[in-house]
Structures
1.
Amino acid sequence: MEGVDHLADERNKAQFDVSDMKIVWAGSRHAYELSDRISRLVASDPVFKKDNVSTLGRKELFKNTLKKAAHAWKRINELGLNEEEALKLRTFMDQPSFTDLHWGMFVPAIKGQGTDEQQQQWLPLANKMQIIGCYAQTELGHGSNVQGLETTATFDHKTDEFVLNSPTLTSSKWWPGGLGKISTHAVVYARLIIDDKDYGVHGFIAQLRSLNDHLPLPGITIGDIGMKFGSAAYNSMDNGVLRFDHVRIPRNQMLMRVSQVTREGKYVHSSVPRQLVYGTMVYVRQIIVFDASVALSRAVCIATRYSAVRRQFGSQNGSHETQVIDYKTQQARLFPLLASAYAFRFAGEWLKWLYTDVTERLQAKDFSTLPEAHACTAGLKSLTTSVAADGIEECRKLCGGHGYLSSSGLPELFAVYIPACTYEGDNVVLLLQVARYLMKAISQLNSGNKPVGTTAYLGRKEQLMQYRSDVVRAEDWLKPSVVVEAFEARAARMSLACAQNLSKFSNPEDGFQELAADLIEAATAHCQLIVVSKFIEKLQQDIPGNGVKQQLQVLCSIYALFLLHKHIGDFLTTGCITPKQGSLANEQLRSLYSQVRPNAIALVDAFNHTDHYLGSILGRYDGNVYPKLYEEAWKDPLNDTVIPDGFHEYVEPLLKQQLRNARL
Ligand SMILES: CCCCCCCCCCCCCCCCC/C=C/C(=O)SCCNC(=O)CCNC(=O)[C@H](O)C(C)(C)COP(=O)(O)OP(=O)(O)OC[C@H]1O[C@@H](n2cnc3c(N)ncnc32)[C@H](O)[C@@H]1OP(=O)(O)O
Ligand SMILES: Cc1cc2nc3c(=O)[nH]c(=O)nc-3n(C[C@H](O)[C@H](O)[C@H](O)COP(=O)(O)OP(=O)(O)OC[C@H]3O[C@@H](n4cnc5c(N)ncnc54)[C@H](O)[C@@H]3O)c2cc1C
């Protein structure tokens, strides 16, 4: 039935004010209003229509993406949108495009690694999109190991130029988004060679295509690397391959904030740490954490609404069957994901603050918090994207068979999202970075270096080694201090055990390789502690709105106790809690699921996703699922004709042959 809210009863059950929760989710009233306005703008614009993208072939899809990107840029200029609004417009356009890499990596790389003069030269062009750039780091042979890149940039004293070259097949740049077909320029990462001496990997700005006819410049071989996972998904992006054959660029196109090459060919390293060459990745990883909460919230919104609409079993005397959301198993799979979406939102907010803080410090030449920023962005990127990717797939299963239909929106969301576990650093490789950071912090404990920031708890090593949880009743697990102490003790003990085992190796690097599997578990425990702590800290703030804080408290407890339940082995083997305390946590968890149940629909409404952005019949705001699914099926191109193409050619002769055979 059109116009009827099939979820109205569910919405009436809510015990909190949804409009206030929308503001908490968005981060502020300003952020909410902005997001609401831009999402409606995109939803009402026919150019941004997206319900047909999964039926388009690659070329049509790519053209459709170019059209949307150009239209987005036109609307941004016509409406005079600021950066925050433009970023939202990109989010709601919901189709990866070359502009992501231009604005998300090319421009930030120049801002972060270029000198003032370089910024003045390149940013005005990039900001007006008079040039379009990408981020060309990964090669066919190396992605994770950035120091292993093979592309060379050799200084030519005579001409005052660098010569970019791809000496081997494996040195071909491979993967950069926007590179394949569109970018005119790239920030290229290459080994700096001066007088046969290798100074390691540095960033260079290279022009790839002519600004007149868009053809590749001499010496440049360039193209798309081919179809990726899924139908539409990331295939709207021209991930590319690039080879240089002794391509010359002026010396001033090496990004020289971190180190410089003089006219005489002298290499000068400034006081800025070498790691700033990796700064763009830190910036993007922080954005990816925020995006993880968005991606997960979409899947959870779809699965929650559909779980309230879908009924199976339990009808008595002609009454309705049971809503599947009332099954405890459904709740135990769905509600921790709902809680995780909120948890990642607040972790993302905090990470944004951390990133802003470190950037301000860097401007003031204080580099002390850079390692913490690297470890936190790497670790939280890894944790949140892994959970979001698995969570989207779980939401598909939570929707049963219909979840597998394209029109559920979930297959497309999954296909477009999962590379987040790989790009901007493989999730395992990033956790190993966190582990190195933790081991370093522990090794410095004895030298009197007090750990700070997210590792401060390691400074209370003795106390945490003595810790025994004093939980005696299920409700004790609702106390934030009880939860934080248990998570701190577990993380500290896991890291300290790794450090102790590492000390048994004469070569620490051998030990690190041997113990890598344990180390990533310790790193995961540390990252989970950060997310739990940041959620709890958020709840210590003033949160207005009827019942809003109470709901968030429930979600926070679910997030923490679900993790405790899932990783019960860690908590028991480290001796932080007893089996009895573990089962009390589980008992509390069940009670928390019951508390969420009446609020579930309102909690996903608070994400404020438009039907356009969700792109899901199962997740429709009005819950009018069945008529719309039925209608949608008839729109499939296969249903354009009663008899499909190919029937007369291939199937009819076969049927006729069978008939003839039967008559003989
Ligand atoms: C029209 C509309 C407009 C709309 C606007 C649209 C805007 C859109 C914005 C959207 C943005 C999102 C786009 C997302 C798209 C993603 C596309 C994907 C891009 C990519 O994937 S780019 C390539 C990414 N590659 C990687 O991530 C590689 C991973 N590997 C590494 O990072 C490193 O090599 C390493 C960290 C694994 C190891 O490096 P290395 O061997 O050199 O290092 P060591 O282990 O020896 O460490 C040396 C010390 O350096 C520290 N370190 C390492 N990394 C960093 C860092 N990043 N920052 C600071 N410090 C770092 C280590 O900790 C070591 O320190 P120590 O003290 O010496 O121990
Ligand atoms: C959709 C997409 C978009 C991308 N966009 C860009 C872009 O715009 N620009 C760009 O430069 N790059 C881009 N990339 C490349 C991306 O950054 C790399 O693929 C990523 O960093 C992983 O590196 P890799 O492919 O070398 O994986 P590998 O390092 O080869 O990983 C393979 C396996 O080895 C494991 N492994 C590797 N090293 C270790 C280790 N030390 N210890 C334990 N296990 C290890 C990994 O966990 C993984 O299981 C993109 C990739 C994708 C998928």
2.
Amino acid sequence: MINELQVFDYEDIQLIPNKCIIKSRSEADTTVTFGDRTFKIPVVPANMQTIIDAPLAEWLARNGYFYIMHRFEPETRLDFVKNMHQKNLYASISVGVKDDEYNFIEALAAEGEVPEYITIDIAHGHSQTVIDMIQHIKHYLPQAFVIAGNVGTPEGVRELENAGADATKVGIGPGKVCITKIKTGFGTGGWQLAALRWCAKAARKPIIADGGVRTHGDIAKSIRFGASMVMIGSLFAGHEETPGKTIEQDGKVYKEYYGSASQYQKGSHHNVEGKKMLIPYKGSIADTLTEMHEDLQSSISYAGGRDLASLKTVDYVIVKNSIFNGDTM
Ligand SMILES: NC(=O)C1=CN([C@@H]2O[C@H](COP(=O)(O)OP(=O)(O)OC[C@H]3O[C@@H](n4cnc5c(N)ncnc54)[C@H](OP(=O)(O)O)[C@@H]3O)[C@@H](O)[C@H]2O)C=CC1
Ligand SMILES: Nc1nc2c(ncn2[C@@H]2O[C@H](COP(=O)(O)O)[C@@H](O)[C@H]2O)c(=O)[nH]1
């Protein structure tokens, strides 16, 4: 048992307002610099096959947003990087840790196609396999900004940083379509925000908070507890542009959202740690991104500041303690 750790999640926290110093919320600056680039908001859609595809990645890059392409059509990745670069857009891709991925990194180097961002995306990121892959990428593609994860402890963050990761991704099992906590008994599900705080205290480099965000206010809370960037799946699922299959049921339109470790992604029942849900159709993702931007501007105004930095020091209260965060199996 970790005695000194205060345990809470997003829904248990309320941030405390400070005197407002701006005349309009439109004055609040939500931009974030991550790697060599600055983005409109500190939010990135999850690198999952029902959340992002190449057209959406291109739209996000063109419109000033950060994206991470998923890794589940591995043979398309080299062309994806070339295509983004031909269009003068940054390339941000994901890799795993299996043998073929080592060859893929060497192929990118041989072609002179250096993705600006490479995310090593596996379930249990505090692992020698991830450390080896970080070092392989840094050897062949030293200019690439490497994000490594996922981890859920300060030790995990520090080991990946020490191996050369430029940022780490925190969150084991808090996702909406995650069943890791139920199947294995492990993870940060139910206390993701406290785990983020715990990890952020140890981090010397940026952290991406990944999973468990259920409301736009949770973005401000993530920044308060140490995130530089927030990865979101379920809130982006169901949009016109997100690639989940469209389903009609009883006259209502839904889109599929499934876990990257679900049987629907894997095509097999082995080591399943994800499930599928139907998300009511939500319209255009541009409208949701605009609303997130405006809500975050409002958060900054309540923090009594002009930019994201003001969120990092606001006071907070713990208003209740719930461990399940609305999820069911
Ligand atoms: N954030 C989260 O909580 C979680 C996210 N996911 C997502 O699901 C996708 C698939 O993840 P993943 O299964 O890791 O990817 P892969 O199927 O690519 O597995 C990566 C490698 O790690 C091994 N591996 C996977 N899990 C473990 C483990 N618990 N202990 C030891 N070795 C392990 C696999 O071997 P083998 O399969 O033979 O064990 C494989 O060699 C990713 O996108 C990941 O982000 C999945 C679960 C949790
Ligand atoms: N345990 C699992 N986690 C998964 C799986 N597929 C994706 N994920 C993680 O969830 C977040 C998105 O969370 P959300 O709460 O915003 O919906 C994603 O970024 C991954 O880290 C899975 O199959 N199992």
